[in-house]
Write a structure and sequence with these properties.
Length: 178
Amino acid sequence: MFENSSEELAYHKLLILYILDKINMDLTNSQITQVVLETEMMNYFSLQQLLSQLMESKFLITYKDSDREYYALTQKGVETLEYFLSRIPENSTKKVDEYILTNKENLLAETQVKSSFVKQSDNEFIVNLRVIENQCNLIDLNLNVSSEKQAQLICNNWKNNASDMYAEVIDLLISNNH
């Protein structure tokens, strides 16, 4: 299929970019690993090495949200994929497309509740709490708190009780009992 190993490396890098582009959401390392291993595209160690190389080349970036690290395509990654898309064999893109169609809901389910905080100053932290369903924000709440301990506690409580809290907020906002 490939004439040399550098061509195979390029193919696998394009495949990783294709997966992130096609699924149209940022993924954790374990989610990318799940897609790659379940479609039998490459082995785990090759994937980890290629993810690092894609980061070094600025085709991917990572960011933290809710104590999880996500991989996201950069503009350079998108442009490279568009330019070289024809180099990915059609049977590979079909395999990825079918996998994503079948499993996207499972991958999405893992990313529905998000919480994070940033330090504004020594005694000011902005906490962001979100619930996402079908890639739409059901709730996106920013809170200003005075300590990192409070911010961390709020994030942890949100992760563990988001659905109940969301339901309570909606109930409070729509009830006529003042």
